[in-house]
Amino acid sequence: MSTNEVSLTAEKKKTIGLKIVTYIVSVLLALMVLLPFISMIREIFGDEVVILPTASGNFTVVTKPRETMMTWKEFTQLFNKPTWTAFGNLVLVTVTSTILNIYFSAITAYAITAYEWKLREAFEKFIIVTMMIPGTVASIGFVQMCYKFHLANNLVMLIIPAIATPMTVFFMRMYLKATFSKEVVESARIDGAGEFRIFNQIMLPLMKPAIATQTIFCFVASWSNSWVPSIILIDDKVKTLNVLNYTSATYVRGAELLMCIPPVLVYLFLSKHIVEGVALGSVKA
């Protein structure tokens, strides 16, 4: 066996070993992510809630393994009207804040990239500095303002802070640094296109991978946010699903199921763009 053949064999063994380690780590990570979800599904569909009388004349709620499959009637009993109302509130807040966040963050990143102005570098550094401030700390002043100006108990106050978040602007800016073409913009200007038309019809389609990636992140962040809503939403009619007070363990299970479905659907719909968006967004110009 020649030296080249020995070298190729060693390299092949090294590649196979690296693949084995990669697969083992991937499987372990997948199990860590999926086991809580599987446990929740098993608890919802595999256990039955039973109300049993006690010796003192009261009643106690216990769970036991389900002997038969859950019927449609039992499934519908997982949800009540307050649960659906809270679910609608959460969908409204999440979808609206995600759309506004993506659009205004993208147009802010485009303005930083496409135009030359004196405070551009200072503004970009300011965005990076604001990223370092913990969201919980920043929300204290916002909550105080809501109560001071009697703006609490209003879903709009959960949407406004989500417009143009620093992290989304920074990601869009990094993506444009790698993909922005000044020649395309100048050609559109020569053809008579306005600035908003250039952004809406040319730049937004070019930013689709970054938009898809940030849509997933923004949607999940808004969907799972319970800190501020738990403080400023008092009335049950305007509470979101993740901060609603539940009167039964059955309704808690229904809420858990509803909380899981939309993020999974959004990810499945946009997952094909996420790798490309993260890769290009991490490349510096």
Structure description:
It is built from 12 helices and 2 strands. With 285 residues, it is mainly α. It folds into 2 domains: 3-65, no CATH class; 78-281, MetI-like fold, CATH 1.10.3720. It has a two-stranded antiparallel sheet with strand order 1-2. Helix 7 (166-179) packs antiparallel against helix 10 (208-223) and helix 7 runs parallel beside helix 12 (249-281). The radius of gyration is 25 Å and the shape is globular. Residues 281-285 have low confidence and may be disordered.
Q: From the helix content, strand content and strand pairing, which structural class follows?
A: mainly alpha
| Overall form | globular
What average pLDDT do the residues reach?
A: 81
**H and E string:** HEEHHHHHHHHHHH
Record keyword descriptors for this entry.
single chain; 285 residues; disordered C terminus; mainly alpha; 2 strands; MetI-like fold; two-stranded antiparallel sheet
Short recap of the structure:
By secondary structure, this protein is mainly alpha-helical.
Give the secondary structure arrangement, pairings included.
Elements: H1 3-46, E1 47-53, E2 59-65, H2 72-76, H3 81-114, H4 120-131, H5 135-148, H6 156-159, H7 166-179, H8 182-190, H9 195-206, H10 208-223, H11 227-232, H12 249-281
Antiparallel strand pairs: 1-2
